[in-house]
Design brief:
alpha/beta; 9-stranded mixed beta sheet
Length: 408
């Protein structure tokens, strides 16, 4: 039922934030994340804060839109009372879980609350995640009519035995159908893939990548499978029923997807993300990597504003109780100190194509750049212009690059 919430200080019942959050707020983009914590079945690899119908303990999916709208209305008051300027939402992202298990009208109503309370910036990016088997053409048309601009389908693989190992329930042949329906509705399309599933060969992965490219999505994400403690997949591997993912094979898979996507005209802009053009990059996720502000709505959702991070009550029933009582759903928070914020800045910005301004690194980090170039991890041409950008090999070893930038 999702990873445990982090340690931190208790959040105040009124949700008010320290006065420091207002500093520089006008220069930071503002986005809204809406967590919809419901799934039809639990995938064996998933460690997200999601719940099937028998795990809800009295919480009802049918009540959720009203509860989320309650938090959205509360959030505006909290930000105003904390001294933050009014800022329209540049991006809105509905994630989960499976947001499209809710009726499309519920998602549109929640988006309407964001529009009413904050406004949407001109050309705002509004995305929902969806499983290929959780939407039909009428749903997608209703979402587009209601203000959504983009849908991200959890394709994961085109190979039946790989989908079975992941406990994914959709038929891979449905992917072209839902992509076509989304296109007909006027929505941009992103496809999510996972590589490194136990039993997945390099040829299996090539088949999935080729199938994804054939759909001509605007955007594609490819993530290495992570075996999280406490998941069904971790137990299967521990019992010897499935093989442990192979790091060398995963590296080969990453190189394959990057090569195939580049040949098809896609450009990487973050270690695990590619787009058909700069305009089709996920602006919402770029906000995370750039350290912008966002309010996370829903059970277990995390927010970040001006160096303060907080998180909501985890279970839908606990979340619902707090909303009904008129108190903030936030249960914990942390105020990030200077060194922590710098570490996160380097960690996140090193992952994106626009990179890090080398002049902003500490002395040791600047001195490390020459060795990283010599090792083929950092692009030499970009570095000469003052920006640290990872090569393909550097992307494979991004965590090691960051350690050298921070520890030198």
């Amino acid at each position: 039922m999702g990873a445990a919430l982090p340690l931190g200080d208790p959040a105040p019942a009124d949700g008010l934030l320290p006065a420091s959050v207002a500093l520089g707020a006008d220069s930071r983009a503002f986005g809204v994340y809406v967590h919809v914590p419901f799934c039809r079945v639990r995938c064996g690899y998933c460690d997200f804060n999601t719940y099937t119908s028998d795990e809800l303990r009295g919480a009802k999916q049918s009540d959720y839109a009203g509860q989320a709208i309650g938090e959205i209305r509360m959030s505006r008051g909290v930000l105003e009372a904390s001294g933050l300027p009014a800022r329209p939402a540049q991006t809105v992202f509905f994630g989960g879980g499976t947001p499209t298990l809710l009726p499309a009208d519920d998602l549109v109503a929640m988006l309407g609350a964001v529009r009413d309370e904050f406004g949407l910036a001109p050309g705002a990016e509004v995305t929902t995640e969806a499983n290929p088997d959780s939407v039909g053409p009428d749903d997608l048309a209703r979402l587009a009519d209601g203000g959504f601009t983009r849908v991200s389908f959890g394709m994961q693989s085109a190979v039946p035995h790989v989908l079975a190992a992941l406990d994914r329930t959709h038929d891979p042949e449905r992917v072209p159908l839902v992509v076509g329906w989304a296109r007909d509705a006027g929505l941009d399309v992103s496809l999510d893939l996972i590589y490194g599933t136990p039993g997945e060969s390099l040829d299996d992965w090539r088949r999935s990548v080729e199938h994804a490219i054939a759909q001509r999505p605007d955007h594609l994400s490819a993530y290495a499978l992570i075996v999280e403690d406490g998941t069904k997949l971790a137990r299967q591997i521990r019992r010897g029923e499935l093989a442990t993912p192979d790091d060398d094979l995963e590296a080969d898979m990453y190189e394959l997807v990057d090569e195939q996507l580049a040949a098809a005209g896609y450009e990487w802009y973050e270690v695990s993300n590619w787009a058909s053009s700069p305009e089709r990059r996920s602006r919402h996720n770029l906000g995370y990597w750039r350290g912008d502000d966002w309010w996370g709505v829903g059970p277990g959702a995390h927010s970040h504003v001006g160096g303060v991070r907080w998180w909501n009550a985890k279970h839908p029933s606990a979340y619902a109780d707090r909303i009904a009582a008129g108190v903030s759903p936030a249960v914990g928070r942390e105020v990030l100190d200077g060194p922590t914020r710098e570490t996160e800045r380097v960690l996140l910005r090193a992952r994106i194509r626009e990179g890090l301004e080398i002049s902003t690194l500490q002395t040791g980090g600047r001195h490390a750049v020459a060795a990283l170039i010599a090792d083929g991890l950092v692009d030499a041409k970009a570095a000469l212009s003052g920006v640290l950008t990872l090569t393909r090999r550097g992307r494979l070893l991004a965590d090691a690059v960051v350690r050298q930038l921070l520890e030198s």
